[in-house]
Write a structure and sequence with these properties.
With about 120 residues, this protein is mainly beta. The protein is built from no helices and eleven strands. The strands form two sheets. Strands 2, 4, 5, 6, 9, 10 and 11 form a seven-stranded mixed beta sheet that branches. Strands 1-3-8-7 form a four-stranded antiparallel beta sheet, with no helix packed on it.
Amino acid sequence: QVQLVESGGGLVQPGGSLRLSCVASGFTFSGYATRWHRQVPGKERELVAGISSSGGITSYADSVKGRFTISRDNAKNTMYLQMNNLRPEDTAVYYCAAIGGRGRGDYWGQGTQVTVSS
């Protein structure tokens, strides 16, 4: 029943933009801090951005700071990642995660592919 579904990935040229969405169901989304992670084959998964449950606090990896914006709409059980000025090194599978805390488990989506290439 618990599900996180990412969408919005695709192929984009360097300098372009994409907006990723993560739609949650089966749990109380508004009670969880959420994050975007990304992973390239053969490399360690990287935390890209995080947002508090209310949306009031955000954080970003240095590699995306100033280019990406994380946001959420709790009424829609949805988290977003606006990605601007994309670079080839942003190419990865992007994953949505809801972080339980306080003894609760974490939930993960299955990812959406972002490819930045000319």
